[in-house]
Amino acid sequence: MKAIQVKHVGGPEVMEEVELAVPEAKGSDAVIKIAAAGVNFIDVYYREGRYKAVVPFVPGQEAAGEVVAIGPNVTDVKVGDRVAYTMVLGSYAEYASVASDRLVKIPDGVNYQQAAALMLQGMTAHYLLYSTYPLKKGETALVHAAAGGVGLLLVQMAHQLGARVIGTVSTEEKAKLARQAGADEIILYTQTDFEAETKRLTDGKGVEVVYDSVGKTTFEKGLNVLRARGYMVLFGGSSGAVPPFDLIQLSQKGSLFVTRPTLAHYVVTRQELEERAGAVFGMLVGGKLNVRIAHTYPLKDAAQAHRDLEGRKTTGKLLLLN
Ligand code: NDP
Fold it and tell me: Which of 213, 295, 306 for mutating ligand 1's site (highest number of atoms within 8 Å of CB)?
């Protein structure tokens, strides 16, 4: 089978297309013939070496496809099932072997591309809004990178919860998309100081929660726009990692809360995984969620997909197609 391999960490050029053996179904694993694999920022962190994996490795943490073989202990799925998964390394390939208890069946009305687009970013938007800081009607949330993969889903779900959403983006094109997704206010944070503007938009009161995936360039100012006892939900570092900081700032800036969540800890049990994936797929089937699959690439062009994502050229979801 064809797969993308990282032999040593580095820039996008370290991703090479190679020929590997199709994995065999062993134990509790199922072999998936991948139709679409999601490209996510976490793949960049692994490729760069910011997150560690043993080289050589096949990157990618999200895919949808058909079960073509199952190990002797598999009871959750059968050959022919349409399934999707996330948080298992190795999806930039034509086939992958995945523990069957990490697979969710794709419901009718959801195609492979949509399923691959929602497993990681859709469930992330869901846990951030429903579990990490349960956002309530009438509250105000600041969402950074509001036209990104997670961003557009987060904005739509927050809007539907009845919250006021202030989104930040870098371009007018992205601003338009975030507005269409339901953002009430948009700040072009590359041109306007988002701290001053957020304070202005909230009459100096600030917001209940900041959902921050940008990190290095936004974190500190984000703390300044929170109300007393507000929540800083730092869930990524697209601009780089946040440097260490002194916890006393949390007291000085209003007895704030800071959390650094990750999806793996919000889909711990099979039940939680099925419920969260089911909720997100349900929103799509029910017409409450629009998934913008804006960029598709053949598998061999994975490096270009990374260049586009890191270059801030993309909106919504990027997929590699087989
Ligand atoms: P995005 O589609 O959001 O792409 C990243 C966006 O970040 C860019 O489009 C850009 O938007 C913005 N950005 C700001 N500064 C920079 C910079 N210096 N370089 C590159 N991009 C920048 O990616 P994803 O939706 O895949 O992921 C978003 C973030 O969420 C990532 O940090 C990722 O790690 C994190 N994440 C965390 C999860 C978790 O559970 N903790 C799960 C999923 C994602 P603009 O041009 O508008 O500034």
Answer: 213
Hey, what domains does the chain have and what are their CATH numbers?
A: 2-119+291-321 (3.90.180.10), 137-260 (3.40.50.720)
Q: What is the pTM of this model?
A: 0.97
Q: Is the dihedral of CA 278, 279, 284, 290 positive or negative?
A: negative
**Strand, coil or helix: what is 132?**
helix
Q: Is the peptide bond before 56 cis (omega within 30 degrees of 0)?
A: yes
Say yes or no: CB of residue 65 within 6 Å of ligand 1: no
β-pair type (164-169, 2-6): unpaired
Residue 226 Cβ inside 6 Å of ligand 1? The answer reads no
For the Cβ of 40 lying below 6 angstroms from any atom of ligand 1, the answer is yes
Q: What are phi and psi of 93, to 5 degrees?
A: -165, 170
In the block, residue with structure tokens 């490096």: 303
Ligand 1 center to residue 7 CA distance, Å? Answer: 25
Q: Residue 92 in contact with residue 58, Cβ under 8 Å?
A: yes
Q: What is the pLDDT along the chain (322 residues), one digit of tens a residue?
A: 999 999 999 999 999 999 999 999 999 999 999 999 999 999 999 999 999 999 999 999 999 999 999 999 999 899 999 999 999 999 999 999 999 999 999 999 999 999 999 999 999 999 999 999 999 999 999 999 999 999 999 999 999 999 999 999 999 999 999 999 999 999 999 999 999 999 999 999 999 999 999 999 999 999 999 999 999 999 999 999 999 999 999 999 999 999 999 999 999 999 999 999 999 999 999 999 999 999 999 999 999 999 999 999 999 999 999 9
Query: Residue 5: beta bridge partners?
Result: 16
C-beta 238 within 6 A of ligand 1: yes
